[in-house]
Amino acid sequence: MSVSHSSKLNKVVRDQYMKLPQGDKVLVTYVWIDGSGEGVRCKTRTLNQEPKCIEDVPEWNFDGSSTDQAEGSNSDMFLIPVRMFRDPFCLDPNKLVLCEVLKYNRKHAETNLRNTCKKIMDLVENSHPWFGMEQEYTLLGINGHPYGWPENGFPGPQGPYYCGVGADKVYGRDIVESHYKACLYAGVKICGTNAEVMPSQWEFQVGPCEGIEMGDHLWMARFILHRVCEDFGVVATLDPKPMTGNWNGAGCHTNYSTEEMRREGGLKSIEAAIEKLGKRHDYHICVYDPRGGQDNSRRLTGHHETSNIFEFSAGVANRGASIRIPRQVGQDGFGYFEDRRPAANCDPYAVTEAIVRTTLLNETGVETKDYVEQSKSERGVLKD
Q1: Is the pTM of this model over 0.90?
Q2: Maximum alpha-carbon separation in the chain
Q3: Is 231 within 8 Å of 172 (Cβ atoms)?
Q4: Confidence band, pLDDT 50/70/90 cuts, at residue 373
Q5: Is 264 helix (H, G, I), strand (E, B) or coil?
Q6: First to last CA, the chain
Q7: DSSP result, 307-332
């Protein structure tokens, strides 16, 4: 197996140091999205006491020229703490802190999509939008070949691997279960996991989360996944189509509902939202991966449980449609629907913001609107 050199270091020796007392000091690891819009970075500092809330964590800075976020002549970027989690690697009382990134002039960085997402979610807070996202990923060796696949060949055809059990059907379950437990410890709202259709491909689900919480929890779950994989010496890729040919791609199916949809008779609201989404298909495709739809074009082919990228479709229990209404929802007449178009490497802030803009703020076309800042009592009523 092609695993990293670091994973072969003596972990028993490391544990000796990790067990040393740290007094009243606390390690706080700041986590942020880099200039690619896909990668995460981190750095750690010492605080003199355990932070009890996010306001207790000070702002910090980093060299944006080394993360593709600034020029070397003006490289300092600000890290603004926005959500705090327990640290499953260094353990209590140490913390992981998700941060927004601001430029030298205090304006949000280009890949800081949380900034606008938070404003949009605040506008519709009275609708209580809930999300659940299904993050698919593929485990690779350091050589870039899927973990567990024959070095110079391919495994058997797809069929026995989805939710599979057995050493000849699933690869890397130790990593998956370690990630699951680490997320639970951290306080990430992870709610499930399963092996996927392609061997070495897995999925975990995060949610239900309301509003901005969805992006925060999924990004931290991704960070924890990459850190766990680092310990095991393998790589988790979110590439939407890591293997060409007759193999499934990787998506980030997004389940969505509002308070009205969750009430009895909510199916009418679900159908109305789907109709709005259908009229804005091109806009959503552009938002649903970091490259304006180029990544998804390799995945959304109309095959391998995907819809065609050029066509919008919806149906009950149809995994080949753009939008799937679960069969139980169709029977109950209320609940949620699943947007199956987002790519595995999507930004959850962009995806959730786009869905809200279209279904609740009634935006049309490919352009987005700017909204006047509103007081809490005015939210839900738009101003031109």
Answers
A1: yes
A2: 63
A3: no
A4: low
A5: coil
A6: 59
A7: -BTT---EEET-TTSSEEE-HHHHHH
